[in-house]
Specification:
The protein is α/β, with parallel strands linked by helices and 383 residues long. It is built from 13 helices and twelve strands. Helix 2 (39-52) packs parallel to helix 9 (246-256), helix 3 (62-72) runs parallel beside helix 4 and helix 3 (62-72) crosses helix 7 (203-212).
Length: 383
C-alpha cells in the first residue's frame, strides 16, 4: 500500500460498473421465478434493435456470437478466415470451432487493427471471410476492409467487442456493416454480466443464429419469449446451448440506459491519458478520434529502453493494475502459423505493449496518482 495513493484500494485495470438499478432488475427476475431465456431477453433485444437500428439476436457471450455468426454464414471445415493475430484468443477459438482455420494477419501500427496490405498477401482460394477486430474501440481502415471484402466476395464478421457505442459518420457501430458481433461481459462498455449479440440485416443469417443458440430447435425463440417450451420440434442444423438468460438481459437493459454516461467518462479519461503520454517520448499511443470512438482499453507502447516487467511490477507495488492486450495468437501452440510471411508490426510491439487502467469508476485523481507513479519510475531508472 502506498502512502501517496489518494485511495487505499487497488486502482483496477478494468471492472464492472453496476448500481442499485441493476441489482433491482435482477431481483425482479428472481422474484418472477423464470430465469431462462424469456420476456426480459426479448425486451433487451428490442431495446438493442432501437439503439442499433437493426435486428438483433442475443446470445450467451461475445465468443458464441462470433461462432454462431460464422456458422450462419456457412463458414466451415476447409475454409479460412483472415483475422489479426493481436486479439484475444476467443476470436480464434470461434473460428476454429466451426472447423475453419484462422489466418493470423499483421496490424497497422497507428491503430493496432488489421492491416489490409497484409491481408492481400495472405488471401487464398480457401478464404471465405474477414474478421476485423475493432481494437480499443477504433475501426481501423474500415472502408478499405470492406472494399477488399467486396472485391474478393468475402463475408465480413466484425468483432466489435471493444466498440459498443463507437460511431462512424455519426452512426453507431452495429447499425451498418455485414455481420457485427458484440460482447457484454463484465468489463465491456456495457455489461449483462456475460452475454453478447449478433446484429445484421441478413435475416437468413439472423434466423440461423436464433435457432442455433437454442440447440438448433427450429423457431423456438418465440415460445421462449412467452415462457413456453417447444415439445414437438425439428432440428436440421448443428446447434448449441448459447442463449441468453433473463437475469443477464435484466442487467443489460439497465446498462444500456447508461451508455452515454459511460462513453463520456471513458472518452474524458482517455483524453487525459493522451495529454500525459504524448509529452513523453518513452511512450507511444494509438490514434483515436474520441468524437466518435468510445475507448474500451487504453494501450501504450513502451520505449525499448523500458523493461515491461519492471514497469508493471513497479506499478503494482503502487497499487496500480496493468494488463497486456494481447499475446498474439500466432505465438500460441494451438494457433501457431507455419507461414513464411512474418508479422513484423505485431511482433515489434507485442513485448512492449501495456494496458493502463480505464473504466467509468476511475477518477481524475486516480490518473494523477498513476502519472506521478510513472514519473517516479522514470526518475528511479534515470531514463
Amino acid at each position: 500500500m502506498d502512502a501517496n495513493n489518494p485511495d487505499t484500494s487497488l486502482i483496477r485495470l478494468s471492472k464492472s460498473v453496476i448500481s442499485e438499478s441493476e441489482k433491482k432488475a435482477v431481483l425482479d427476475v428472481l422474484d418472477n421465478g423464470y430465469l431462462g431465456m424469456g420476456s426480459m431477453v426479448k425486451t433487451f433485444e428490442d431495446n438493442l434493435s432501437v439503439f442499433l437500428d437493426r435486428p438483433v439476436a442475443c446470445v450467451s457471450s461475445g465468443t458464441s456470437a462470433l461462432h454462431l455468426a460464422l456458422q450462419a454464414c456457412e463458414i466451415g471445415r476447409g475454409d479460412e478466415v483472415l483475422i489479426q493475430s493481436l486479439t484475444y484468443v476467443a476470436s480464434f477459438q470461434a473460428i476454429s470451432a466451426t472447423g475453419a482455420s484462422p489466418v493470423p494477419c499483421d496490424i497497422d501500427l497507428d491503430t493496432f487493427s488489421i492491416s489490409v496490405e497484409d491481408m492481400k498477401k495472405r488471401i487464398t482460394p480457401r478464404t471465405k471471410a474477414i474478421m476485423p477486430m475493432h481494437y480499443g474501440g477504433g475501426l481501423g481502415k474500415y472502408a478499405e476492409i470492406y472494399k477488399f471484402a467486396e472485391e474478393n466476395k468475402l463475408r465480413v464478421i466484425e468483432d466489435a467487442a471493444h466498440a459498443f457505442g463507437t460511431k462512424r459518420n455519426n452512426k453507431v457501430v452495429g447499425s451498418f456493416g455485414d455481420v457485427v458481433c458484440f460482447s457484454f461481459d463484465g468489463i465491456k462498455n456495457i455489461t449483462s454480466g456475460e452475454g453478447g449479440c449478433v446484429v445484421t440485416d441478413d435475416l437468413k443469417v439472423l434466423n440461423k443464429v436464433k435457432d442455433a443458440r437454442l440447440l438448433g430447435v427450429e423457431n423456438d425463440t418465440e415460445n421462449r419469449f412467452k415462457a413456453k417450451r417447444s415439445w414437438d420440434f425439428n432440428v436440421h442444423n448443428q446447434g448449441w446451448r448459447y442463449h441468453m438468460s433473463d437475469i443477464m438481459a435484466a442487467i443489460g437493459n439497465s446498462q444500456l440506459l447508461k451508455i452515454d454516461e459511460f462513453s463520456q467518462k471513458r472518452r474524458k479519461l482517455a483524453e487525459v491519458y493522451d495529454d500525459y503520454f504524448k509529452t513523453n517520448k518513452l511512450f507511444t499511443t494509438i490514434s483515436r478520434n474520441y468524437k466518435e470512438v468510445v475507448p474500451h482499453i487504453y494501450p501504450i507502447v513502451l520505449s525499448s529502453k523500458i523493461d515491461r516487467s519492471s514497469f508493471q511490477e513497479f506499478l503494482i507495488k503502487k497499487n496500480i493494475q496493468t494488463g497486456i492486450h494481447y499475446k498474439p495468437n500466432h505465438l500460441l501452440d494451438y494457433f501457431s502459423s507455419d507461414t513464411n510471411l512474418p508479422l513484423k508490426n505485431t511482433d515489434s510491439i507485442y513485448k512492449q505493449i501495456v494496458t493502463m487502467p480505464l473504466h467509468p469508476d476511475l477518477e481524475l485523481k486516480d490518473l494523477d496518482y498513476i502519472f506521478s507513479s510513472i514519473s517516479a519510475f522514470i526518475k528511479q531508472f534515470e531514463f
